[in-house]
């Protein structure tokens, strides 16, 4: 019931009261500027749209309604006595005539439940009450108010009530856009809401003749049009560009007819389109889902929220912004920041990227880089920028899993278990987090280590809490923004390199089930996830081909006209020149927490000799005489090695290092020569392979067997040397 009032109280109800008490069956979610971004139906028993002002209703419909229902609407004062007389005369002689009910009388029946017709029509008492009420309405309401209220309250067909629901359902447009043909069909439904299509068309044809006297009306065409329109159901339960955020807002503000959000409608549309377009390009790689969120760094306001890929997804209702997933390497920045804050390492400290066995309560934990290839000694800057796994685990050993878990909770990542539960795999993202909380954690880095909750609408002032040492947050941001730090893995011209200042990190979970790109500029933080809602693994998706292109597109869109500059160094950090022994890395100007600065970084020869000879970047300490005396053999990798290609690294940048002892060696891969000397580099492709070294006369000196798994250079695309 829209409104109920007993006679004569119904007539005393004002137009403003009726309009104020009107309740649509749906809620409108608006962006920050008042643009509609989502409509969500809440009342399943009726389909009632928004209240539409008379000025926003098609003039054709207003004309059609008056001509068909109440020709002297603007002349009478509630009762058309001429029509009453004509109807009475017709009843006397049993002649079919038009009814005498005016629009004002019909509105009185809509407003007063006691005046509504029953199965046998209205009783004499109801007709008298309707007559009195309509005259009282006319005395207190203007004609335009009566017509506006009538069009918003009249039942049209089935569950459709009001012109907004009718026009959007049957014609797929707003009420102001109805043409004469559509207006004729709508007016025909007032008289017979549930009539068959042929009867509606016949009635609509008669209305058209009233609207266009003397014109030739194509009634057959109108019949086809009416039949098609009555079969349409375009007024979906929910429609718009932000269904998942709308659902979340409705939980916090149930029953509201209109809800304002913090979203920017143009940015939301761009994010939806960009994500869908990119996922279409990746459909051949077994990937159909994705999500994206954009936050304002200063306020924490959500500017874009894309929960799924929509029609591309088999699970479009699942909100990828809130779903819990393994974040992979995207947790590493918080680990290094904590270690820097605790003065355990600096950005220039040397970390060993080599085979390691860590004793745990459950046995040995043996971290590996995905390609089983170790880089030897690298700085913390390179280890984080290039996303090396083993140095991250070594750093977590220094920090401890439990302390790292506390740090993650401080930046807004609500881990379900303790750090000891996850163990050292926590450095590689074994815990589950949501895209929203992870993006806000990166926003904490963007804000110099200060955390605040995200915001969806107007609320209290932003309240920041210290969550991370601001000096460590600054140094971490500087690393994530450094294209040279990630060049060893991603190259210098990857999709992650923007023309303006940004700090970014990618991540991929175990078995390539989740791919992430998280990063921030001076003004915004953007998070993107791609994968499958079902948890199925993707095929051949790297850190730069999965989520990163969407992240880069969003950042570019955000900064079309806005600059982004590097953050100002906070008090307590200094920049000084750092050099590295054995040419491990090029000398550079490096940031330090004051008191931890150091000019030279190296290890002694004893430590270097203890490293495996396969450690890339270190020269062998063995003399030529010792090499000649040794039995020729392959020293790395070991036979039986299984190589899982790193999904975060572009395939062209992944090469497996081989080393051997002996002289005048040639390397054979599956029977074909691919290198000479004591070391070799090979671009792997999936499959089982046999690697041999042979002497100058072709004699086989040693061999190893290995297997390559995961996404990489496909055999069909690669020759014997592994080149594309």
Automatic annotation (TrEMBL):
Pfam families: BiPBP_C, Transgly, Transpeptidase. GO terms for cellular component: outer membrane-bounded periplasmic space. Residues 35-212 form the Glycosyl transferase family domain. Pathway: Cell wall biogenesis; peptidoglycan biosynthesis. PROSITE patterns: SUBTILASE_SER. SUPFAM superfamilies: beta-lactamase/transpeptidase-like, Lysozyme-like. It catalyses: [GlcNAc-(1->4)-Mur2Ac(oyl-L-Ala-gamma-D-Glu-L-Lys-D-Ala-D-Ala)](n)-di-trans,octa-cis-undecaprenyl diphosphate + beta-D-GlcNAc-(1->4)-Mur2Ac(oyl-L-Ala-gamma-D-Glu-L-Lys-D-Ala-D-Ala)-di-trans,octa-cis-undecaprenyl diphosphate = [GlcNAc-(1->4)-Mur2Ac(oyl-L-Ala-gamma-D-Glu-L-Lys-D-Ala-D-Ala)](n+1)-di-trans,octa-cis-undecaprenyl diphosphate + di-trans,octa-cis-undecaprenyl diphosphate + H(+). It comes from the Bacteria. Residues 627-705 form the Penicillin-binding C-terminal domain. Gene3D superfamilies: Biosynthetic peptidoglycan transglycosylase-like (1.10.3810.10), DD-peptidase/beta-lactamase superfamily (3.40.710.10). Keywords: Carboxypeptidase, Glycosyltransferase, Hydrolase, Multifunctional enzyme, Protease, Serine protease, Transferase. GO terms for biological process: peptidoglycan biosynthetic process; proteolysis. One of its GO terms (molecular function) is carboxypeptidase activity. It is an enzyme of class 2 (transferase). Its EC number is 2.4.99.28. Residues 290-458 form the Penicillin-binding protein transpeptidase domain. NCBIfam families: PBP_1c. PANTHER family: BINDING PROTEIN TRANSPEPTIDASE, PUTATIVE-RELATED, PENICILLIN-BINDING PROTEIN 1C. In the C-terminal section; belongs to the transpeptidase family. This is peptidoglycan glycosyltransferase.
